[in-house]
Amino acid sequence: MTNPAQLITDMGNKARAAFLTLSGVTDAQKSTALISAARHLRAGAATILEANGRDMESARDRDLSDAMLDRLMIDESRLEAIAAAVENVAELPDPVGQIIDRSERPNGLMMERVRVPLGVIGIIYESRPNVTADAAALTLRSGNAVILRGGSEAIESNRAIFEAMTAGLAEEGLPENAIQLVQTTDRAAVGAMLKASGLIDIIIPRGGKSLVKRVQDEARVPVLAHLDGICHTYIGKDADQDKAIAIAVNAKMRRTGVCGAMETLLIDQDYPAPGPLLRALIDAGCEVRGDDMIMELDPRTVPADADDWNTEYLAPIVAAKMVRDMEEAVAHIAEHGSHHTDVIVTEDSAIADEFIRRADSAIVMHNASSQFADGGEFGLGAEIGISTGRLHARGPVALEGLTTYKWVVRGTGQVRP
C-alpha cells in the first residue's frame, strides 16, 4: 500500500494537472458539470443514505457526542439540501476573470487586477459529509482543484458523495482529478497534506478545535480557518422584548452544534425584561450558567465559572452575564470572543452602529440571530467555511474567497526610460 506521503504527492500532482486543464474550461462547462453532479447525488440517494447509516452505526458504537451525530447524519431532506446547494453554486456568477479595478497610467499603460483561482486547495474536515459536496462544488466553480480529507467517522458517506460528484464531472468531460478524496483514514495523510508545500496552495480546516489547532501549528502552506465559534448576543437596554426572546432562543437552540450558535448571552443591566428572556431559554431546554445577577433572576440557573466565558459548548448550554452598557459588552467580547459572529439586539440605531463599528468580528449583526452565519444565508451559495483571520478572506468563504488576483498590464509598445 502507498505510504501517506507518497499518496498525497501523487494526488497533488494529479490535482495540479487538473487545475491547469480547468483554466481552459468555460464557465458554462463548469456550471453544467455541477448540475450533472447534483443529478447524480439525487440518483444515488439510496447508496448515499445506506453509506451514512453505516457511519451512524459506527459513530454510536464509538459514543460520539450528540452534536457530532447531528453533524454526521444525512436523511432524505438533508441530501436534497446538499444537491440543491450544488445547483445553487452552479447558478452563481463565475468570479474568475472578473476585473476588480482598472486604471490608466500617465504613459498610457492600462493596469487591471483580475480574479484568478487559488490553485490546488486542501480541505481537512470532520463529521459533516455535506462538506464533501459543498467543497467540491465551490472549488470547481471557482476554477480550483481540491483534495478532500474527511474524518474517519464519515468515510462511507464521503465516498458515496464523492463518487456521485465525480460522476457528474466525467459525464460532462471535465477532469475527474479536479476533485479527489483521500480514501485512507490514516491520520498521517493529514500530516502529509500539511507539509505539501508546492503541491497544495492553501489548506482549509473544518472541524473541532483540536483539528484546527493542529493544522495551524503544523501547516507549511497557508491556512484559512477559524478556531472557535464563541458567538455573543448582546441585549441592549432598548431591545424589543419579543425580538430579544426570539433571537436569543433561535441563536442558541435552533442547532446547538453549529459554529454560529450563541455561546454567551450579555444583557444590559437596564434592559427591563431579563427574567422572561432567561425563562424562555430554560423552558426551551437550555442550561443557563450565569453570574450573580443572572442567578437572582431564575432559580434554575447555575453559577458560571471563569472558563464558561471562553467555551464553545456546541450544546444546549449558554453562559449569561449582566453588563453595565454597550462599552462593557464590547470589552467582554474583545476579551473572550473568537472574532466569529457577534450580535446586538436594540431599537437604538445609533447604539447599533457604534457596536457594529467596534465589535472586531468577521460577522456583526443587528437584530438577527447569529445562526444566519452561513454562506447560503448570505446569498453566497454553499460555503467552504468561516474565516476569522484578517488576511485574504473573512466571514463565510465562498466563490470569491477562493480566488486571488493577478495584475494584467496592457500597453501599446511602451518601454521604460
Shape: globular
Rg computed from alpha carbons, rounded to a whole number of angstroms: 23 Å
Structural class: alpha/beta
Approximately what portion of the residues adopt beta-strand conformation? 15-25%
- Please count the beta strands (DSSP E, at least 2 residues each): 16
CATH class of the largest domain: Alpha Beta
Q: Write down the CATH topology of the largest domain.
A: Aldehyde Dehydrogenase, Chain A, domain 1
**Number of helices, where a helix is a run of at least 4 consecutive DSSP H or I residues:** 14
Helix-strand pattern: HHHHHEEEHEHEHEHEHEHEHEEHEHEEEE
- Within CATH, the superfamily of the largest domain carries the name Aldehyde Dehydrogenase, Chain A, domain 1
**Quaternary state of the chains:** single chain
Count structural domains.
2
Largest sheet properties: 7 strands, parallel
Q: Estimate the mean pLDDT confidence.
A: 95
Instruction: Specify the CATH architecture of the largest domain.
Output: 3-Layer(aba) Sandwich
In short:
By secondary structure, the chain is of the alpha/beta class.
Describe the structure.
The protein has 14 helices and 16 strands. It is an alpha/beta fold and 417 residues long. Strand 1 (99-104) and strand 2 (110-117) form a beta hairpin. The longest helix is centred in the first third of the chain and has 19 residues, at 4-22. Strands 10-9-11-8-7-12-13 form a 7-stranded parallel sheet, sandwiched between helices. Strands 5-4-3-6 form a 4-stranded parallel sheet, sandwiched between helices. A 3-stranded antiparallel sheet has the order 1-2-16, with no helix packed on it. Helix 6 (130-141) packs parallel to helix 7 (155-171). It has 2 domains: 4-226 and 389-410, Aldehyde Dehydrogenase, Chain A, domain 1, CATH 3.40.605.10; 231-372, Aldehyde Dehydrogenase, Chain A, domain 2, CATH 3.40.309.10. The radius of gyration is 23 Å and the shape is globular. The model has no long low-confidence stretch (mean pLDDT 95).
